[in-house]
Write a structure and sequence with these properties.
Largest sheet: 2 strands, antiparallel
Oligomer: single chain
Low-confidence stretches: none
Mean pLDDT: 89
Distance between the termini: 106 Å
Shape: elongated
Strand order of the largest sheet: 1-2
Number of helices: 8
Helix content: 40-55%
Length: 217
């Protein structure tokens, strides 16, 4: 028995509704997957001692991040972009990155004198361990106090003038900042790092020259 026109309409309508339900299910299932994917953060680690160019190299893969604009905008933030592990979306631009890292700095460190921050940035480049950072901090603060040039290899210009460089040379971590704030007194005035990164201290220039002959040749 052939179907009536009314039956055909009902069957067609049911078919259309079925397709509509199927498409809706597919749409929402894929949307949920995309949302779940979007919630998975990108992990970016900025090590202690990175400078602006190093940091820019980490974020240059972000589609909205412009390296040159970052270097320009962050030029006065060197030292205050806190080295840490960040979980991001990958859509951040250079302004977002600067704000995120600066906010983290003030959350972890708070307000800090410029000289202490500059000292911390030097210590980050001059030593590896907490103990060496604290001893070298004591040496360098003594040199500042008596008007002696800092003479640090990480800032070659400090061999030719007294006092600090005009700005931090990198972005120090908490260990270096604490060492800058809490120098350890010692009888030493000089130090050097051998080819393996070990620090050797000296009380006099003669001892320093002997260490150079022993460890750097």
């Amino acid at each position: 028995m052939p179907l009536s026109q009314n039956s055909k309409v009902k069957i067609f309508t049911a078919f259309i509704l079925f397709i509509a339900v199927l498409l809706c299910w597919f749409y929402f299932s894929q949307t949920e997957k995309l949302n779940n994917f979007a919630l998975v953060p990108l992990r970016v680690t900025i090590p202690e001692g990175y400078d602006l160019k190093d940091i820019a190299g980490k974020f240059k893969v972000f589609k909205n991040f412009d390296v040159n604009n970052f270097l320009s905008l962050a030029s006065k933030s060197e030292g205050r972009l806190f080295p840490d592990t960040y979980f991001l979306t990958g859509t951040e631009d250079e302004t977002d990155i600067i704000k995120i890292m600066r906010d983290n700095f003030y959350k972890k460190i708070g307000k800090i004198d410029d000289d202490i921050l500059i000292m911390a940035s030097i210590l980050e480049r001059e030593a590896k361990t907490k103990e060496d950072m604290e001893i070298i901090s004591g040496i360098l603060w003594k040199r500042i106090k008596v008007g002696m040039p800092l003479q640090v290899d990480s800032v070659p210009e400090t061999y030719s003038y007294k006092g600090f460089p005009p700005a931090p040379i990198c972005n120090p971590g908490l260990k270096a900042i604490n060492a800058a704030k809490n120098p350890v007194e010692s009888p030493y005035w000089y130090y050097l790092s051998d080819k393996k990164g070990n620090i050797h201290y000296a009380k006099t220039l003669d001892e320093q020259n002997a260490n150079k002959a022993k460890y750097l040749r």
